[in-house]
Specification:
SH3 type barrels; 2 domains; 4 helices; GMP Synthetase, Chain A, domain 3
Length: 164
Amino acid sequence: MNKEDLIKRIEEIVKPIIEARNLDLVDIEYVSSAEGMVLRIYIDKDGGVSLKDCEDVSIVLSAVLDTYDLIKEHYFLEVSSPGLYRELKKEKDFLRYKGHRIKVKLYQTLPQLKGQKVIIGILKEYKDNFITIVLDTGEELLLDLKTVAKANLEPDISDLLNKC
């Protein structure tokens, strides 16, 4: 089974288990590290996940994945939150983080961006695979997601420090 098919199959198995705990499956990665292969499963919920959420899901998924025995080689299972700079991939992500500061990397620059391929602004809207970003200048930019190589949250660190 190739890596893409493996991840799809793992998603079919773990998604209902995660959702039964009122959590969202954000992403799955199967990657090589210095210690060996790592299966990373990212979970989230409104308000963020706790260490206990990750621990509980890890215990259950470890047992379930062992019974399916899809991965023949030794691997480490990591269950974690997607973090402060989480990647936005799905419609659900863009809808959930409307009003948040994001960073967008484009495949190629657009005429109105004067050579820029990286944009930071507030995600104003998501509709039909288009996002509207409000730049620091107040200008609104409409982007087709087909032009977006990567989008992720880009929290303002000073705002985070003020909350402490």
